[in-house]
Structures are given as C-alpha cells and as structure tokens.
Specification:
Helix content is 13%, strand content 37%. By secondary structure, it is mainly beta. It is globular and about 45 Å long.
C-alpha cells in the first residue's frame, strides 16, 4: 500500500491588519513544514518571517486499503468526492469548509506547534496516512 499524506491548507491570520502568507511543504512521508511570512510591501523585498504563530493540524480522513479517503466521524457531513481532481481554488474552498466545521465543533487538533524565529514550523512523526487540515 502506498502512503499518501495530503494537506488542505488554510491560513486566515491577521496581525496588525496585514495578512500573513503560508507556504506548506511535505518533506517526507512523516514530516510536514509550514513557513509563515508577512508579504513584501513593494513586491521586491523578500517576505519577512513571522515567529510565534501557533499552527494546528487536524486529521480529517483516513486512507483505506483501496487508497480512498474515508472521512473521520467529526467530518462525515462534508463531501470529499473528486478531491484529487480539484484545482487550487477548489481545494481552498474545500479547506475553508473543513476549517469552518472544525471551529464550529471545537475539534481538538492532532498536532500543534509554534513558528520559530525563521517563521517555520515542522510537524514530524505524522504516521497515519490520510487527509489533514492545516
């Protein structure tokens, strides 16, 4: 069985009314990195890393033996059919649905970490293949 780790990323944080940017990257089957930065004001200067931002990861679906996602009980009211064929805008829309439901039901995160001085947080030891919300 192949191990798949997919992450639906949504970051809606506003500090001092300047929206933050988040770049997510899977480093291996068991680790996932998110970089949080303030965007460049002039478009020329590099983005500025933001330390001290708490990020959480929620497991929303498991991967069954047939390599299909099966939503976990807290998320079963949502639909993930066609998820692998969605474009970036559609994935962002789905991530927002998962995020809203997570907040409404006050679901406990599976992992939580705080960005370091470089604006980076590393989630390690994610051993269960599945679909995750960041």
């Amino acid at each position: 069985m192949k191990y798949f780790y997919h992450f639906l990323c949504t970051l809606a944080i506003c500090l001092s009314c300047i929206p933050l940017q988040a770049k997510a990257e899977s480093l291996s089957f068991f680790s996932y990195q998110v970089e949080v930065t303030y965007p460049s004001v002039d478009g020329i200067a590099p983005p500025v890393p933001v330390s001290g931002v708490e990020l959480s990861v929620y497991r929303v679906a498991e991967l069954n033996k047939e390599e299909n996602y099966v939503l976990l009980p807290d998320y079963q009211q949502l639909d993930i059919s066609g998820l692998t064929e969605m474009n970036a805008d559609e994935l962002e829309e789905e991530a927002q649905k998962f995020s809203s439901l997570t907040e409404q039901q006050d679901i406990t995160p599976d992992f939580t970490a705080i960005t370091d001085e470089n604006g980076i947080v590393l989630f390690q030891n994610i051993e269960e293949p599945g679909l995750y919300l960041t």
